[in-house]
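Sequence only, no structure available. Ideas?
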Amino acid sequence: MHFFQHRYISLLALSVFCYLAVVVHGIRPLDEDGNPKYNLSWMDAWLEEEIPISAFQEATDLTSYLPPGWTEEKFNTATAKDLEDLPIDVLLNTIGRCKATGVTSETLIEAEIAARRALANAARLEAGLPALPERSKTSYVKIIEDYELGEWGYVVYRTGAYGDDARWEQFMKRWQELVDEQVDPALGDGVQMAKDRLRFKFVEDKDQFEKASMEDIAMHYQELRGESLIPEGLDHFMCLLVDEASIASVLDGPATGQTPFVQALAVDDLVRGDLPYAFEVDPEDAEDAGEYHGYFQVAISALLHDLYPIVGTAALAPHDIAPLEGRLYKGLFMNWIGDNPFGP
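Reply:
I predicted one. Tokens follow.
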């Protein structure tokens, strides 16, 4: 039986929803109203605003980058908690001296994260807001570790902007920014590792793909899978597609309040060819009627935290997560909670 409606969520979908609600949203920072904040670029703003270069240059202890009483061995093996327990001025001094003397290490990355969190928490305390939640592993970090993935991500097809290289370059620049927000090391333990292993395999060919249909793309993807040309962590039952509408949503959409998105293709469904079919709905909910076409728009902000745990583990079928026709998938959690869950 094919179905997707929020009034008929399956037990499996509910279990995944609970998993994502706890694991993903449990580690996200809060906005000024104390609610989970989805866009995490604000942490970079904190670092820029509160830790200027002058703070590094004016570090009080210019003899060593080590915190008082620390040895090089302790520095190199320091945990996130070790660094978060240091006073903020000591953290600033450590970061500044590392940068001034060219010291690079995983500990330096952790120190910068600890400084961001310390400054953010200080501001939140002053504003009467609760502290940021304890750092923990994000959903995709758990999957990378559990499945021992050396690479993870998606295969992405390009059908748009073949006649405008400058527009494509602008898209790719903004794409990278949107992706980076989802793998900010401040999100939790292991995220830097996940960021280093993240891959997007872009498939581009003007002659072959500019006018390709969704079914054409699905067939090509199946051929790549059949020839074992896709790394394990990128080999899913769905691939992504960047078309003209996707590019417009990224470059032009924000000015009109549109959420940047790409297309997600349910490969097996498209290849099978028994589409579209109607969602099953209760007669009393006729306004929710619609058809499943084997593809749907997915917010770029949902690709890693929300969609990857589903496609990376094959926990749900595509038709179980597809939003109603003409609506945007913002992630399983976001689709089921809120006044306007599907967005514009």
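The chain has a mean pLDDT of 75.
Hope that gets you unstuck.
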